[in-house]
Amino acid sequence: RSFGYCTAGSTTLGAVVQGASKMALQDFAQKALFAPLGITKTEWQFSPLGLAQGGGGLGLRSRDLLKLGQLLANGGTWHGKQILPAAWVKASISAQAQVDEQRNYGYLLWLYPYSAKGVTHQSYQMAGSGGNKVVVFPGLDIVALVTTTNYGVRSPHQITDKLIAEHILGALE
User: Fold this and answer.
1) Of the four, 40, 65, 122, 125, which is 20 to 30 A from 110 by CA?
2) CA distance 117 to 1
3) Spatial CA neighbour of 133 closest among 72, 37, 65, 76
4) Under 8 Å between Cβ of 109 and 5
5) Ramachandran angles phi, psi of 137, nearest 5°
6) Cα 166 → chain centroid
7) Residue ranges of E strands in 9-158
8) What is the tens place of the pLDDT at every residue in 40-87?
């Protein structure tokens, strides 16, 4: 069995959510996720058919991306309220597919280790276009964010991973 990431899968998932909720994806996301987190500014991209792009088509402010990471780190809880089912979060941050010898993929989350100063730290993360990442290090109780403008740059995620390992994890005692 092999693994292949495809953004179209996330877009298709958005259409499934839209059909199941009987709401436009952006409206469902605002009601069920963004409003409870206090996220008010979203920038959606739309397909030629008018479908909000659930894969690679959502722009959020850095502070709002961090909220999503913290929500996952807290098992789906935000300020004492369960926003996402804890069982779904647990499944999302568990390996559902093996990418390669070190990396796995959960439900729309990448799972892999970072090494810094000879220590390995497990993580799960949201990875977006251009090397943008929200990374949760559960063993360290850290949610890290890197936003970039590395669109069209070769290996943007590797650049971000190096920044995280050297400057975020490398700064730990």
Assistant:
1) 40
2) 34
3) 65
4) no
5) -110, 90
6) 21
7) 42-44, 58-60, 77-78, 81-82, 97-98, 104-105, 110-116, 119-127, 133-137, 142-146
8) 999 999 988 888 988 878 999 999 999 999 999 999 999 999 999 999
The rounded distance, in Å, linking the Cα atoms of 96 and 108 is 10
Q: Which phi and psi angles does 153 have, rounded to 5°?
A: -95, 145
Tell me what the pLDDT averaged over the chain comes to.
Answer: 94
pTM of the prediction? Answer: 0.93
For CA atoms 142, 111, 114, 134, the dihedral sign is: negative
| pLDDT higher than 70, residue 27 | yes
* Structure tokens given for 42: 């979203």
Residues comprising the chain, all counted: 173
